[in-house]
Amino acid sequence: MLVKWDKVVLLATAASAASQSFSFLPHNLERDKPTIAEGQDYVFNVTLFDEIIDAIDVMQEAYFQPWVGTWPSAIDWTAAVLGTHIAGTLETLHRSLEIAASRGIEISEGWSATENTISLYFSQLIGFYFGQNIFAVRQEAYDDMLWVVLGWLDTVKFVDGYSSTPSRPPSGFGEINGVEFPTETLRNRTWHGTLWTPAFAHRARIFWELAAVGWDTTLCGGGQQEATAARHVSSQPGDLKRQKWYPHDPKYLVAALDAYNWLISSNMTNALGLFTDGFHISGYSSGSNNTECDERDEMLYTYNQGVLLTGQRNLFSAEPNPSYMRAGHTLIQNVIRATGWDLALDSPVDDIDNLNLVEAGELPPWRGLGRAGILEEVCDAKGECSQDGQTFKGIWMHHFTAFCSPIVPPSPDQPTLNLPKRTTTARPPVRPEFWKSIAKEHHAACQRYLGWLKHNAHAAARTRDSEGKFGMWWTAGLLNNVKTSELRFGPDLLAPMEGVVDYRNQGVPQTSGWVTDEELLSGGAEEESAMVYDDQSNKAQHPMTGRRRSRKSTKKMDHKMDERGSQEAVDDDPNTRGRGRTVETQSGGLAVLRALWELSVQVE
To answer: Could you give the CA distance from residue 232 to residue 215 in angstroms, rounded to a whole number?
Structure first.
């Protein structure tokens, strides 16, 4: 049995005593000035903004069907994530208007065009509200439910922000003979999207409550079986989003704190400072009375590092303790280091310009969560990613973007939650100087990530095909889309897999610790494929309980994956292997471009 931390986090956070030093960068980076001057051309870069619009246009035009309100090739949980990316992009569109106006850019014409785009994609989110397969998700894993929660919380966040700030053109728009049209009455109407806030919030609350029953302290002292701690921290409806219609029930924040407290004390991080995928309980499948998490699964996935970031940022919003922000920045820096990027030098640690790629197919060495400064999944290089795996990098980028959003002091009318006293949390005095200082250091730290982010966005953009569809393996873009036949996979070029099970991409092994003794003795498990997602026949989904594939089932699955990819596998495009280009890989490309734009336009 695998006890998954990331569902606990979507409940979670224990904080250390607050320090008065708010620097979120290592000492060597504090002394140096960021060397990202070349990235300054991205400040409100129109080309980059257009590329974001192109990415979402392709995602929706190629994969979304408005008349059924969903992406037919997606499965339930990845569809929920796609909705989250749409909500995030809507926030970016809204922010573009605010930034343009604040910098004195005339937005009368731009407002109309942007409003039209916002209305288009918001209407598709409404369609997805009705097209979402909520009855099926109720019977699925707890983490599937929590992705639903996160998606609608992000949508509510967009609606709340867009409706509460002036989103109309400047005064004088449409003025004729001194008379304005539209009239003030029309212009002052509340944005229509607020009509959907109660419905979106209700769905988030229902699925949070369904997932919350999976929280269990009898095993491992906490966590969720086959579930996600990190998502439990991030998806607390009503605790951190300060909409007036929320009851502000403190139980959500208490649940987040409990889950986070369990997570950071669970020994879930490896030597790289990254969160592994979960724990096994030795002897559990054979009826042992052991309840301790004593067999850690060392598998690393990018999304596990991402979902926690939103939880930490939201916990800081509820309890302004700098330790949440410090832990989040440390995790981001660990991820960047594990891609093979040196923040001090603002460049890859490997000499990627002198690789013997053509003659020997030499790849940059694996660094823990990527290579050559590019974020990767273990499955990327060989083109073996499942539908789950193809979704993960986009999740990381989305939550990274949310974490690095500017810190804004709470408004005076923001409600205060009455929480039980916690001796583990020391609250600093919340003075204006506190907010100014911590916002400044947070901004400085996030700006140090721009060089790495630009490096990844450029690589990802170069994996696009002639239709504008992003590939899964971003590193291929950095390597000029090296021919598949030229690739050589030496032992130091792939992730070490000793003691590691990539069950998200390869399926659940038929061994004790993963399945019960009864299942082992049944002898029928080998006939079931690991993760066959057949869109034409009831969308079979087995991301949490699927079996390791037999040779027969592997051929069947590979055939189905090739059918669902955007094109046949070709030698000069490594991203046509396996599942090829999909709606999930497109969402990853959208997420990395959006992350770059959002961080680039921030001003101190």
So the answer is: 9
Task: Kindly report, residue by residue over 93-152, the tens digit of the pLDDT.
Answer: 999 888 877 776 666 666 778 889 999 999 999 999 999 999 999 999 888 999 999 999
Residues 6+ apart with CB under 8 A from 183: none
Contact 362, 350 (CB under 8 A): no
Distance, CA of 177 to chain centre: 51
Rounded distance between C-alpha atoms, residue 383 and residue 396, angstroms: 19
Residue-wise pLDDT tens digits, 412-422: 666 666 565 55
Q: Phi and psi dihedrals of 295, rounded to 5?
A: -130, 95
Least confident residue range of 134-143, 358-367, 465-474, 545-554 = 545-554
What pLDDT score was predicted for residue 429? 52
Q: Residue 216: helix, strand or coil by DSSP? A: coil
Q: How many Cα neighbours within 13 Å face the side chain of 507?
A: 22
**What is d(CA 263, CA 353) in angstroms, rounded to the nearest whole number?**
40
Distance CA(308)–CA(234), nearest Å, equals 7
- Kindly report the CATH number that applies to the domain delimited by 2-17+41-411+424-600: 1.50.10.20
Q: Find tokens 């060495």 and name the residue.
A: 365
**Minimal CA–CA distance to 222: which of 250, 262, 171?**
262
Residue with tokens 């997570």: 263
Residue 348 three-state SS: strand
Provide the whole-model pTM.
0.82
> Of 466, 503, 472, which Cα lies nearest the Cα of 587?
472
E strand segments, 311-405: 341-342, 347-348, 370-371, 374-375
Average pLDDT, the chain: 77
Handedness of CA 414, 417, 418, 424 (dihedral sign): negative
